[in-house]
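Following up on my earlier thread - several people asked me to post the actual chain instead of describing it. Fair enough. Here it is, all 95 residues.
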Amino acid sequence: MPIGGDISHNKCDKCNSSLVFNEFGDGSSDESQLEEVCEECATCETCDGLGLLLSNNKDNIDEIQRCDECQIFTSDSDAQTIVFNWYKKKQTEEV
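Reply from S.P.:
Thanks for posting it. Predicted structure:
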């Protein structure tokens, strides 16, 4: 699954492929972040490379959680923030 973005000069520690820059956040504010990711290693069978899943918490309430298999995000909160910012940006674009 291609992620896209500009190619970095750094190489992946696992497969030695070139890394690409992937932007996280809404893209229009200082809260956006660039992260270097490997397109070759990014495809996780559990989450299809998204780094997050729709799951449920201990109270059986649906919530966005990070994928513990690939650990693209450092926490559930980080994964939730990315989804929230993406949704907020989509709503702004539709207006």
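The first strand starts at residue 7 and ends at 11. That should answer part of your original question.
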